[in-house]
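dumping the sequnces here before i forget
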Amino acid sequence: MAQIWKGVVREYADFMPEHILRDVVTLGEGGNALIAAPAVGAMLKEITGVNAKVFIKFEGRNPTGSFKDRGMTSAMSAAKGKGAKVVVCASTGNTSASAAAYATAAGILPAVLVPDGKIAMGKLAQAIAHGAKLLQVNGNFDDCLVLARKLAENYDVELVNSVNPDRIQGQKTAAFEVVDELGDAPTIHALPVGNAGNITAYWKGYREYYTANCSSTLPFMWGFQAEGAAPIVLGHEVDNPETIATAIRIGKPASWEQAVAARDESNGVIEAVSDAQILEAHRILSAEVGVFVEPASAAGLAGILKKARTGTFTPDLSPSLDKGEPMNIVITCTGHGLKDPEWALNDINGNSKGSEVEPVKVQNDLSAVASILRLPAPMTERDL
Ligand code: F0G
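..and the predicted 3d for all of it:
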């Protein structure tokens, strides 16, 4: 009989602090099987000669369509256990959608602070649908986070951004799932970096599993920021971050130090990718892998391809390569394409891609449809 998934807090209860387990709030998040991406493996082979098995960890499959749900189940469980009446978060959209859904499930009022404009419509709709108090701040994400932190310091309100350690507890389970499925850590784990909570959580998860002898290796953590919002790459804060990948439009990541630690302790990298590279990876994911993501989610694949093309994807990364075995690469795609679908239809300037995406008009007639599809004529009775 199939096992029914109980959500990440209960599934990984042995790795959760006690206070999170007392009153679990879950919408059934996690349990997202890896998706094989042989088309990406073939591209890497062609560019670098390296044999790799590439897998997508598609976090768009979570209840609110992003990886945030993993951390929100644990943060909201802790908040409910404490008797919180109001939670607050700053968000580029996904955190607010997730906080709103989980707060609703917990019977807590969600207040969300989002930057004025530059939030994908799908995410705003989610927060509104779940009954969040949605406040648009005339500033960017970094300003919103400062406000949210002050609100939580000065009022009886729980902060559910990833600076809350209870968020990381749930979010780290994505690394557990990867190891559980592959039997060990991958050689490389690539993912987008914005506020840097996710890279922090993955690295914590990989280390905890390693320490518990659930894996025998640790991955190289490869994080990618958008070029116009790449403070960690530049080594200084960015006052006016800009990128089409609005989810990672962040100039002062809260978990900056932890991200640098994940990079350095894993001998990994944090590099930048351009908006054009992000959109190219977005297209490859949808048209060649079968996974529809929002732009920020494509930064991990964009980074892998950039490193392959610039010759910095070093083939001596994995001892298993000596034996001629392919290395495993896992790329996290953080959010669903339905949240921000315009990028399937529009180019980098927001203009329609034209005939490439416009439907072909056809008469309501069988042979007209078959002819446009260039289908060979059906066999007639005479042919038989
Ligand atoms: N990808 C997506 C789709 C995101 O929504 C975010 C962050 C990231 C990547 C980056 O993850 O911040 O942990 O480094 N979104 C936050 C939000 C900031 O408010 O929804 P990170």
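Residues 66, 68, 91-95, 162, 192-198, 247-248, 294, 296-297, 334-335 surround F0G (CB under 6 Å).
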